């Protein structure tokens, strides 16, 4: 899997040149259809091409995004339409709609901004410490999005294990080397199986209907050393009446909080 080839978006003859087409390969097969994270990354790539064409500052990076998965995405061609909602001096907002066979599958909202001066502090949970033994998430012989990131789960984490907490802890890095950008990070925030799978003992429905990410670094590109990993903690802390809420924290190797995520999932 070549990450950069997976993110190719081609302009089509749409109104104002804001329409694109891409293709999702079977490398991104998920539990149900195509992985939502690759759809999010393609939507962002299209949005950033439009913003660059409109002259947005090169210092502006994605700082927040919200995606609604209104219908299941499948492997194959996908159409992407971008609308600039607001372009301010410091903050730009875009709306993106993806569709397949003329049916809307995903709606997205992206916020791009250069860094601002402001308060700096963190009351976030500390980065979990990696144990001496971990579990490789690679699934040999399968076409799965899980194989597109090198990931090692905490040894206490297992699917359908009836754990006390609905939580993943993991250490991950891109397959294509140590560099990652906003599109890869956006994909990765939606990468893990539902955390409720750790607490459940039988298969559960846990389809994401809304996914959001907040990026706490304005760099837009980050580099991991040869032996460095992102640390992730994903916790579904509440489930009731068929819906679960899952919060996530993604840390750089030095313990800096890189991003937070939240997902609302069907859970019943």
Structure characterization notes:
With about 270 residues, this protein is mainly beta. It has one domain (about 5-115, about 135-265): Acyl-CoA thioesterase, double hotdog domain (Porin, Beta Barrel), CATH 2.40.160. About 15% of the residues lie in helices and about 40% in strands. It has 4 helices and 15 strands. The chain has helices spanning about 5, 35-55, 180-190, 195-200; strands spanning about 10, 20-25, 60-70, 75-85, 90-100, 105-115, 135, 150-155, 165-175, 180, 210-215, 220-225, 230-240, 245-250, 255-265. The strands form 2 sheets. The chain has a 13-stranded antiparallel β-sheet with strand order 1-2-4-5-6-3-11-15-14-13-9-8-7. Strands 10-12 form a two-stranded antiparallel ribbon. It is globular. The model has no long low-confidence stretch (mean pLDDT about 90).
Structure summarized in a few sentences:
With 268 residues, this protein is mainly beta. It is 13% helix and 41% strand.
From the structure above, extract its key features.
13-stranded antiparallel sheet, single chain, 13% helix, two-stranded antiparallel ribbon, mainly beta, 268 residues, globular, Porin
List the SSEs and their pairings.
Layout: H1 3-6, E1 10-11, E2 19-24, H2 36-53, E3 61-69, E4 76-87, E5 92-100, E6 103-113, E7 134-136, E8 149-154, E9 167-174, E10 179-181, H3 182-189, H4 196-199, E11 208-215, E12 221-223, E13 230-240, E14 243-251, E15 257-266
Antiparallel strand pairs: 1-2, 2-4, 3-6, 3-11, 4-5, 5-6, 7-8, 8-9, 9-13, 10-12, 11-15, 13-14, 14-15
Helix pairs in contact: 2-3
Beta strands, count? 15
Shape: globular
H/I helix tally: 4
Level of helix content? 10-25%
Major β-sheet profile: 13 strands, antiparallel
Q: What is the gyration radius calculated from CA atoms? A: 18 Å
Which structural category do the helix and sheet elements fall into? mainly beta
In order across it, which strands form the biggest sheet? Answer: 1-2-4-5-6-3-11-15-14-13-9-8-7
- CATH topological fold name: Porin
- Poorly predicted ranges (pLDDT <50, ≥5 residues)? none
Q: Could you tell me the mean pLDDT?
A: 91
Q: What is the first-to-last residue Cα distance?
A: 33 Å
Name the CATH class: Mainly Beta
């Amino acid at each position: 899997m070549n990450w950069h080839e997976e993110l190719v978006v081609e302009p089509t003859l749409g109104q104002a040149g804001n329409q694109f087409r891409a293709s999702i390969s079977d490398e991104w097969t998920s539990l149900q259809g195509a992985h939502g994270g690759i759809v999010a990354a393609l939507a962002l790539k299209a949005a950033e091409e439009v913003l660059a064409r409109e002259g947005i500052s090169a210092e502006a990076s994605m700082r927040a995004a919200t995606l609604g998965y209104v219908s299941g995405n499948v492997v194959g061609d996908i159409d992407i339409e971008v609308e600039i909602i607001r372009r301010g001096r410091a903050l730009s907002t875009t709306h993106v709609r993806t569709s397949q066979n003329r049916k809307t599958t995903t709606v997205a909202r992206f916020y791009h901004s250069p860094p601002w001066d402001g308060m700096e502090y963190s009351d976030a949970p500390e980065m979990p410490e990696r144990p001496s033994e971990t579990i490789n998430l690679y699934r040999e012989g399968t076409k799965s999005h899980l194989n597109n990131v090198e990931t090692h789960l905490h040894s206490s984490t297992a699917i359908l294990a009836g754990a006390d907490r609905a939580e993943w802890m993991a250490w991950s890095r891109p397959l294509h080397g140590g560099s990652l950008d906003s599109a890869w990070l956006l994909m990765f925030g939606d990468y893990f199986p539902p955390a409720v799978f750790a607490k459940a003992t039988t298969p559960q429905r846990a389809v994401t209907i809304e996914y959001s990410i907040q990026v706490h670094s304005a760099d837009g590109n980050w580099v991991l050393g040869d032996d460095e990993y992102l640390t992730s903690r994903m916790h579904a802390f509440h489930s009731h009446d068929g819906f679960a809420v899952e919060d996530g924290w993604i840390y750089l190797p030095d313990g800096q909080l890189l991003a937070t995520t939240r997902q609302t999932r069907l859970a019943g």
